[in-house]
Each structure stands twice: as structure tokens, then as C-alpha cells.
Design a protein that fits this description.
The complex is a heterodimer of chains A (767) and B (239). With 767 residues, chain A is mainly α. Chain A has helices at residues 10-15, 20-50, 59-63, 75-109, 117-137, 166-194, 207-238, 257-291, 298-312, 327-338, 341-355, 364-387, 389-395, 399-429, 435-461, 481-509, 568-571, 589-618, 631-656, 660-690, 699-730, 736-766; strands at 550-551, 561-562. The chains are: A mainly alpha (767), B alpha+beta (239).
């Protein structure tokens, strides 16, 4: 790879860049664009609720010209659906994970780039295509999705209830976004594990890096479940299946409606922590930097992050107390949910501990951090009400929930976004944002979000349902209308306030370079390099001697903090000498990447196979598989695939002995066996289809074709991988250790596909 | 001054009570946290010649202190609420099955209306004397009414704010909710789960009246269908 940036064309440098810093900016700009779109939608929603079916100023003339500036009833569901979907997946996720993660992880741990720079580029472009689909969905006949961002079936799966392609585009856009997040997560996890600078132990990472690390792990584990659910929605809509559709809308014997909710919230609840953990980490960092004090209780904080991550995966049921789920299970979910308050309380106490006896500077990022502590205190404490089953049933799907999750997800994460931008702007662009304008922006935003989200909870307590376009027809809501008017105007204020941010941002971008390398006197590694950093971040990979929070170290002269690469840390007894560089990693980078990928694959198949089991157990008249399937043929196919695992294992053996000819022979054999498998599969599909056993015959047929179809796609991509390796093995420019690493990782993937097939064969044909 | 709509149910006060308990406990915690935060920010503002105190707070004492405080919060707020929730649950949801004198009503929501079905004088559903209304649910005072819900199309949620309860109506499932009113009047039934374009106007009416008024309303054919075909599901399959 060429290391001199000056030879690259504009397109290489700024469009199809593999530099994590450029990719971070791509994520940032995309996220800010969608923040503006989603924010405008929020204003339209609030204005419609304030003055139902009346002309909307400015936006009305822009978007609803034919109806005289009045919003039509079919527009309102699109607005709240796309507001939610866009804000969560296309505004906040790209900024917090995409931009903050990409920009800070390599800089903070002392790496020259991500572990897989090209994969990183693909991550962004996957999001880009996804966002293009989202934007496009507004302009197609029938308009964008109107199902609510939760996309509950059967509203989302039945073409009778949601005709048109809006829902399909939304689901496809989300799927591409999921690919982007998962690929990004692989990069973050592997980079953090394998590319830390010498001396950068896990215990010396910033809390932001820790937050991003846990958040990526949560994504790897739980996002595939949502992907499985989204696939089933698309199948139900377009292929005539009924996995998630039941009742009169189902074409035949229906599947299970609640299955979707379990899968969705199995991801959806961790999603809250996916977004908030990096923000909490950032808050910890900022409170320490601007109190000129080490983070209080670093170990307890990281430990709490770990506990929260673990708990977040087992509490989803509190979203479903009114769904008809067994109340005893509900009780278990209640207890698990409220126990999250223990690690959360540890967080708050450690934040207060960090401020205690500090030397506090109220810079703009610090104001954001303090704001987050405030709004998350409200968000977290009001969360308790939702865990309490009996009370939650009353406020479920009311504005009390909306207010609560806007305090946690909107207010907290939004201030996280602002904290990130104000704090990292000098490092990203080498320029400093105007602090006065920043203060005005943050304080006004703080006031408006608190007013709006408090009012939401207030009307929610009175029973105001969410997702209704007009509250005025309900007797019990009539006395509350003045709150809706109030929120409409506050939303206008919030929108107008954001112009100070955009103005500051854009105006500063076009100013002369002004920022020093370390304008905040921060200790972490990012601040020892230039602003903005050179293409590979550090001219020489730094040695790390101490943690990132050595502020106000006693005995230090000249400045009040130690940079992590400051060797004085050793003499002052707050650090230790760095080990010699070049220590081989425990698991090689390409293999580790494959393992993380396989974990997400396992979770995807867990979602799909788990759904099959649930549907089968819940069905009254499940057919005997042997009525439809040719078990002998599938048995032969199993044998073919297992043999191919063997030939590939022999290939791996050959590449380790550096014998390329033998490797090519075995690769070819594996490819042929894989093709044989697909050929038999195609014959089998063709035969059964003509005998009348199709994907829409019954639930068993749907499950059979979906599971084996996904598996066949995996086999196909495995074959493509083998063909690539076969070509690479013939190329003399391919280094043998690189080739060996790739063959070994591909071997892992191929064996995984085989194991999945054996499981599928067993549960579909034999049981 | 209350933040809730009027409570006309027998045990809905439990919900309000749970809220106020949680409200005072969390408000106290919130004020404490924010109070300390503001105090620290004011007290420890950076000043000339003042240096921050160097500590990592990683000592065993600091660790024990934070975790025991966190545990205290858990016991005082969370466990406290959970115990109250247990009694509230028993009062609101636990007694539905036991009441032998209960009236049974079937509610089948569809986009965007509430179909209501009474068994009629023979107390059997699916017979000639069944009474079917749209968006008009009447119940007698001081008597338990068990409602079975099943959706005709998408998910709807039967929400009666004045009773502090709601229950989703899920296609493919029969769910149940139980009402017992202690005050008369006319109230709203709202759909709480987004069900499509007309979700916002899927409004039903719930009338609570004396047993005599209820009986005569049920026999009065105005605005009602009788002998409508069976809805294809019955109380029998309710778990």
C-alpha cells in the first residue's frame, strides 16, 4: 500500500478512502445530514400535534403544497416512523459508532489505522447505499414506511395493511445499515485487541474506547437477531410466507406475531446501551480532563460497563408486558431490568467522584458532559417505572415512554454527539469552534430538550398515546392540548437553536488553521500527534508508559498532566516502562476478524433456527418432514459437504508447509465439492417445487426454503472465497504468510458452513 | 391536583400509588445527584493556585463504598417498587379468574373500530341471541367484566386510561383483560398500538351504568346486531 497521501487523487483520498479519519468524517457528515432531516420531521410531528390539521408554516408550503400546507393523515405515520428509524440508525449510530469510533479508536490506542481498512471503507459505503434507499423511499408512490420504527408485524408484513414499497425499502436500508455496523464492529474489536501500541494495556485505554469496545461486542451479538427478523418480514411481504403473520391476514396457517417482538427487542434493548456506552465513556473522559483529575474508580466503571452489557441482553421482555406474554416471565424480566440500576448507580457515583475536589473548567464539551449526567439521571430514573410491570402496563405506548427514551436516547446521546464534535473538532480539522456560540447552543439546547421531554412524560402520565396524529378527539386528552401547543413551540425553539451549531461548524471549517496539537491539555495518545493527524496518525508508533488520566500528578513541573507517552511517568511512579514492540498477538489479525464475523453469523443462524423451533413448537399441525423431503439426497449432500471440509483442511495443511501446488489442488477439489453440493441442492429444489412443495405451501416449507436458502448463499460466498484464494495462490506477489492467514480464516468459515448444514439437516430432515 | 385521568376502577389506585411511590423515591435520588453535581461544579471551579486532588479512586474502600451505595439504591427503590408491584398485580390482574359472578365480553378490534360481543341471555357465545355492537362497550357498576381480545387484522391495544390498564389484541392469540368499575359515566377506549392510518381515530366508548340500566340497554335492539355469525374463536380456548 502506498504511504504517501500526496499521490492520491481526490476520489481516492476523500471518497473511496481507507483512512479511518476520512471515513470518520464521511460518517459524521452523513449523520449530521440525517440529524437535520430527522429533526425537521420531529418539528412537523410536534406542530401537527399542537395544531392538528392546520397549515404548517414554512414546511407546509414546501412539502404539502397540494393540500394547502396541511398534513394528510397518511403522512403522519411516515413521519414518526422515519423520524425514529433515521434518528436511531442513520443519525446517531453513524455519528457515535461510525464517526466517534472510527476517529478515536486508532488514535487513542496508538494504531496507524484500523485492522481492516478496506472493510472499513465498505462499512461506510454500505451505510451510504442504505441511506440512499431511505431517502428514495420518500419519493416512491405510496411514500415511505408508516409502520412505526419498530416495524411490528402483521402491520408490516401484510401488503393489505401496508401496500407499496416504502416498508421494503426501509427494511432493506436497515439491513444495509446493519451490515455497515457489523463490519465496523469487527474492525473496532480486532483493532482494539490486536493493534494497541506497546505499553497500551487494556487498563490504560480511555473509557471512550472501552465504551466503543463493549458497544461493538453488543452489536456483534444482538444485531444479527434483528437482521433475522427483518429478513422474515421481507419474506412475509414478498414471498408469500407467514413466519410473523397470523390471524385473518395470514395467507394460510400463520406463524407467530410475538416472535418478531422477541427478536426485535432482543436487539432493540441492547441498542440503547450500544449507543449510550460510548457516550458514557466520553463523559467519563471529559469529566476527568476538565476537572484536571484522574477518572474516579476506573476499574469499577469498566466493570460496570461489562455488567451492563451482559444484563442488556436479557431484559428485552420489559418492552412486551402488554403483549400477552406470560406474566410470570414478565416478573423475571422486571427483576433483571431493575438490577441494571446497580451498575448505573456506580457510574453516577464515579462521575461525582471525578468532579470531587477537582479543578473544574466549564468548556463547551464539559457543559455537554454535565448535561448528559443531568439528562441521563432523568432518563435512567424514569426507566425504573417501565420495569415495574403493573405500572408499565398503564404507561406502555404512551408519551411517558416517549419522554423517557428521548431523555436516554435523544437527549443523552445527542449531547454525546455535540460533546464529540466540540471536543474532537480541533483534532479532526485542526481548527477550533467558537466557544461562545458553542455555549449558547449547548445551554439553549439543554433547556429546550428538557422542556419538551419533560412535557412528554407529563402528558404520558395522563394517558396520551404515542403515534396518534390528533389528540383532540379524546375526552381524557382534551385538558392536555395546551401541553401539545407548548411542545410545538419549544420544538420550534430547539430547531432554530441548531442553526447556531451548523453556522459555527461550517463557518469554522472555512477559517484558517488555528488549533494546537493539544488544545485541551488532554493526556491520551490522540493529543500527542498533530492536528489534524498525518495519514498514518503517528510518525512513529508511540510507547505508552501510563494511563490516560494522569492529571495534577504530584511532583510534576511545567504542566499539570502527563501524556501517555511521557516517559516521566516512570520516574514519578505512575507508570511503567513500555515493553519492546513487535510482540506477536495472541490470535492473528485476519483470524480474529473471522472469529468475530463468525460469532455474528452464529447469532444470525441462532435467530433463524430459533425461529424455526419456536414456529414448529407452536404449530398445531406440523407435517412429517419425510412427506416432502428427499432425505437420501440430502444425506448424500451432507456427505459431500463434510468431505469438502476434509479437503480444505488438507489445503490448510499444505499452505502451512508453503506448498502452493498442493494447496491449489485441494482448493480446486473443495470448490468442486461445493459446486456439487449446490448442484444437488438446485436439483432438489427444482424437484420439490414441481411436486408442489414450495416456500408458501406451509410453515414447514417456508422454514425449509429460508434456512437452506440462506445456507446455500453462504456456500456460494464460500466458493467465491475459494476461487479468490486459488487465484491468489497462483500469484507470485502474494506473500506466503498473508496467504496462509487468509486460507486459514477461510477454512474457519467453510467449516462453520458445514457445521450449520449438519445442524440444519438434523433439525429439518431427521427430527 | 392529579397527573392522572379520573380513576373509576376498583383497583386502579394501585397504579397511581406505585407511581407516587416511585416518583418520590426517584425524585429524592435525582435531587441528591444533581444537588451534589451543582455543588461540586461551584465549589471546585478552577481558580488561580488551586490544584486538583490526585486520586484514582481505585482503592478497596472507594470500590466498596460505591457498590454498597448502589446496592442501597437498588434495595430502597427497586426492591421496594417490586414488592408494591406484586400487590398491585394481584389486585388488578390476579382476581379476574376467581370471580364467579363475572360477565364475559368478547372484543375483536379491526382497523379502525372495536367490535364488541355479548353472549346474551343464554350466556353462551356463538348463539342466536348474541349481541354485537361497534365502538360501544357497556358494563355494569361494581361487577367484574372479563374481556377476551382477539384482533381481526393487525395488533391493536385495548386501552382504558380511566381504569389504568391496557392489553394488546394480537392476531393468532386470545388475550384477556378484566374491568371492575366503582363509578359510573362515559369514558374513552383508545387504541394504544399503532395500527395504521386511522390509528389516531380508533376511539371507542365505554359506558359504566347500574346493573338495571345495563340489562335494559342490552335488550334494547337500537344500534345493535343480533345473531351475527360466530367470530371463530371462543372463551374455551383461553388459557
Amino acid at each position: 500500500m502506498s504511504h504517501s497521501g500526496s499521490h492520491k487523487s481526490f476520489i481516492q483520498k476523500y471518497i473511496f478512502s481507507t483512512d479511518h479519519k476520512v471515513i470518520a468524517l464521511q460518517y459524521l457528515f452523513t449523520g449530521i445530514l440525517f440529524l437535520a432531516i430527522g429533526g425537521s420531521m420531529a418539528f412537523l410531528i410536534r406542530w401537527q400535534l399542537a395544531y392538528p390539521w392546520q397549515p404548517i408554516p414554512f414546511f407546509g408550503d414546501l412539502f404539502f403544497k397540494e393540500s394547502g400546507g396541511i398534513m394528510m393523515p397518511e403522512v403522519y405515520p411516515m413521519l414518526f416512523t422515519m423520524h425514529g428509524g433515521i434518528m436511531v440508525f442513520f443519525a446517531v449510530t453513524p455519528i457515535i459508532l461510525g464517526a466517534l469510533g472510527n476517529f478515536t479508536i486508532p488514535l487513542e490506542i496508538g494504531a496507524q489505522d484500523m485492522a481492516f481498512p478496506r472493510l472499513n471503507m465498505i462499512s461506510y459505503w454500505s451505510l451510504f447505499v442504505g441511506s440512499a434507499l431511505i431517502i428514495a423511499s420518500f419519493f416512491i408512490p405510496g411514500g415511505a414506511a408508516g409502520t412505526g420504527w419498530t416495524i411490528y408485524p402483521p402491520l408490516s408484513t401484510s401488503l393489505k395493511a401496508t401496500p407499496g414499497f416504502g416498508t421494503d425499502l426501509f427494511v432493506l436500508g436497515l439491513t444495509l445499515d446493519a451490515v455497515s455496523i457489523l463490519a465496523g464492529g469487527i474492525n473496532y474489536i480486532v483493532t482494539i485487541i490486536n493493534l494497541r501500541a506497546p505499553g497500551m494495556t487494556f487498563g490504560r485505554m480511555t473509557l471512550t474506547s472501552w465504551g466503543l469496545f463493549f458497544s461493538s461486542i453488543l452489536n456483534t451479538l444482538w444485531l444479527p437477531l434483528a437482521a433475522a427478523a427483518l429478513f422474515m418480514i421481507l419474506f412475509d411481504r414478498r414471498l408469500g410466507t407467514a413466519f410473523l403473520t397470523a390471524g385473518p391476514l395470514a395467507p394460510r396457517e400463520g406463524g407467530q406475531v410475538l416472535l418478531y417482538q422477541h427478536l426485535f427487542w432482543g436487539f432493540g434493548h441492547p441498542e440503547v446501551y450500544i449507543l449510550i456506552l460510548p457516550v458514557w465513556g466520553l463523559v467519563g473522559d471529559l469529566l476527568s480532563i476538565f476537572s484536571r483529575k484522574p477518572v474516579f474508580g476506573y476499574k469499577a466503571t469498566v466493570f460496570s460497563m461489562c455488567i451492563i452489557s451482559a444484563l442488556s441482553g436479557i431484559v428485552w421482555g420489559h418492552h412486551m408486558f402488554t403483549s400477552g406474554m406470560n406474566p410470570l416471565i414478565g416478573k423475571a424480566f422486571m427483576f433483571l431490568t431493575v438490577s441494571i440500576s446497580i451498575p448505573t448507580a456506580v457510574f453516577f457515583l464515579n462521575w461525582l467522584g471525578t468532579l470531587w475536589r477537582g479543578s473544574i473548567r466549564l468548556t463547551v464539551p464539559m457543559l455537554c458532559a454535565l448535561g448528559i449526567v443531568f439528562v441521563f439521571a432523568i432518563g435512567g430514573l424514569t426507566g425504573l417505572f417501565h420495569a415495574v410491570q403493573t405500572f408499565d402496563i398503564y404507561i406502555h405506548d404512551t408519551y411517558f415512554v416517549v419522554g423517557h427514551f428521548h431523555f436516554t436516547l435523544a437527549a443523552s446521546v445527542l449531547f454525546g454527539v455535540f460533546a464529540y464534535v466540540y471536543f474532537w473538532f480541533p483534532k479532526m480539522f485542526g481548527k477550533e469552534l467558537n466557544q461562545t456560540l458553542g455555549r449558547i447552543h449547548v445551554i439553549l439546547t439543554f433547556i429546550f430538550v428538557n422542556i419538551i421531554f419533560y412535557s412528554m412524560m407529563r402528558v404520558g402520565l395522563a394517558g396520551h398515546m404515542r403515534r396518534i396524529a390528533d389528540a383532540t378527539s379524546y375526552e381524557f386528552l382534551k385538558p392536555l392540548q395546551h401541553w401539545n401547543v407548548f411542545m410545538g413551540w419549544a420544538a420550534l425553539g430547539l430547531i432554530l437553536t441548531q442553526f447556531s451549531f451548523f453556522f459555527n461548524f461550517i463557518f469554522t471549517l472555512f477559517r484558517e488553521k488555528s488549533a494546537s496539537n493539544n488544545p485541551w491539555s488532554a493526556g491520551s495518545l490522540a493529543w500527542i500527534t498533530s492536528s489534524p493527524p498525518p495519514e498514518h496518525n503517528f510518525d512513529k508508533v508511540p510507547n505508552v508508559y501510563c494511563g490516560p488520566y494522569e492529571y495534577s500528578v504530584p511532583g510534576l513541573v511545567g504542566q499539570d498532566f502527563l501524556s501517555q507517552s511521557d516517559i516521566r511517568a516512570v520516574a514519578l511512579k505512575v507508570g511503567s516502562p513500555a515493553p519492546a514492540p513487535g510482540k506477536p498477538s495472541f490470535v492473528p489479525t485476519s483470524k480474529l476478524g473471522m472469529w468475530v464475523f463468525l460469532i455474528s453469523e452464529i447469532m444470525l443462524f441462532t435467530g433463524l433456527i430459533g425461529s424455526y423451533i419456536v414456529l414448529r413448537l407452536g404449530s398445531m399441525n406440523w407435517p412429517n418432514p419425510s412427506e416432502f423431503l428427499n432425505t437420501t439426497l440430502l444425506g448424500i449432500n451432507t456427505f459431500v459437504l463434510i468431505t469438502s471440509s476434509l479437503t480444505l483442511a488438507l489445503g490448510v495443511d499444505a499452505v502451512q508447509k508453503n506448498d502452493r501446488e498442493v494447496l491449489k489442488k485441494y482448493l480446486l477439489l473443495t470448490i468442486l465439492l461445493g459446486l456439487t453440493f449446490l448442484g444437488i441442492k438446485a436439483y432438489d429444489y427444482h424437484h420439490m417445487w414441481h411436486q408442489g412443495f414450495t416456500i408458501s405451501t406451509n410453515l414447514f416449507g417456508s422454514c425449509y426454503y429460508m434456512l437452506t436458502g440462506f445456507h446455500a448463499l453462504h456456500v456460494l460466498s464460500g466458493i467465491i472465497l475459494m476461487v479468490y484464494l486459488w487465484c491468489a495462490a497462483g500469484s507470485s506477489s502474494m506473500k506466503s504468510e498473508v496467504l496462509s492467514g487468509r486460507v486459514e480464516s477461510s477454512g474457519l468459515y467453510w467449516h462453520f458452513i458445514d457445521i450449520i448444514w449438519v445442524i440444519l439437516f438434523a433439525i429439518l430432515c431427521l427430527l | 391536583m392529579t397527573w392522572f385521568p379520573q380513576d373509576v376502577s376498583e383497583s386502579g389506585f394501585w397504579v397511581d400509588r406505585l407511581f407516587y411511590l416511585g416518583f418520590w423515591l426517584t425524585s429524592a435520588t435525582f435531587l441528591l445527584v444533581v444537588g451534589i453535581l451543582i455543588y461540586f461544579v461551584l465549589r471546585y471551579r478552577s481558580r488561580e493556585g488551586h490544584k486538583a486532588y490526585y486520586t484514582h479512586g481505585n482503592s478497596r474502600q472507594a470500590f466498596l463504598l460505591t457498590f454498597s451505595l448502589a446496592l442501597l439504591v437498588f434495595v430502597v427503590i427497586d426492591v421496594n417498587l417490586a414488592i408494591h408491584d406484586h400487590f398491585a398485580w394481584e389486585a388488578i390482574w390476579g382476581s379476574a379468574e376467581k370471580d364467579k359472578n363475572a360477565i364475559h365480553v368478547e372484543v375483536m378490534p379491526e382497523q379502525f373500530a372495536w367490535n364488541v360481543r355479548y353472549a346474551g341471555p343464554d350466556t353462551k357465545f356463538g348463539t342466536e341471541d348474541d349481541v354485537v355492537t361497534i365502538n360501544d362497550l357497556h358494563i355494569p357498576l361494581n361487577r367484574r367484566v372479563n374481556v377476551a381480545l382477539k384482533s381481526k387484522d393487525v395488533i391493536h391495544s385495548f386501552f382504558v386510561p380511566n381504569f389504568r390498564i391496557k392489553q394488546d389484541a394480537v392476531p393468532g392469540m386470545v388475550t384477556q383483560i378484566s374491568l371492575r368499575a366503582k363509578r359510573g359515566g362515559k369514558f374513552d377506549i383508545a387504541c394504544a398500538e399503532h395500527c395504521g392510518l386511522g390509528h389516531y381515530r380508533m376511539r371507542g366508548s365505554l359506558t359504566v351504568e347500574s346493573q338495571e340500566e345495563f340489562d335494559s340497554w342490552l335488550l334494547n335492539p337500537d344500534g345493535k346486531q343480533t345473531g351475527a355469525p360466530n367470530w371463530g374463536w371462543e372463551w374455551g380456548i383461553v388459557k
